[in-house]
Design brief:
It contains four helices and no strands. The protein is mainly α and about 100 residues long. Helix 1 crosses helix 3 and helix 1 crosses helix 4.
């Protein structure tokens, strides 16, 4: 699976798992790139997931891809694109 396919798969899984279909439908198209931040920060608006969503994201990744997400990995889980890189690295033993 190439990174773009993995990015889409992850983004779609996040939307489904977090019940974000209505939120996503209201966002302007430019905010729907796979590198759009999932969490709101001081320097970007993001999709505005919260800390509970972060835990749900970890569970999703563990169930769907069979990978372990450590506390120190959390800073990498900022967008579908970055999560795809992380998952790919974990699956190939690079992390």
């Amino acid at each position: 699976m190439n990174n773009e396919s993995l990015e889409k798969e992850i983004f779609d899984a996040i939307v489904e798992r977090m019940g974000l279909a209505e939120v996503i439908a209201e966002l302007p198209p430019e905010k729907l790139a796979y590198d759009t931040p999932l969490f709101e920060s001081m320097d970007s608006e993001g999709i505005a997931l919260d800390s509970i969503d972060a835990l749900e994201l970890v569970v999703l990744l563990q169930e769907k891809y069979g990978i372990t997400v450590l506390d120190e990995d959390m800073s990498r889980l900022v967008s579908a694109a970055r999560i795809a890189e992380f998952v790919a690295e974990k699956k190939t033993g690079g992390v």
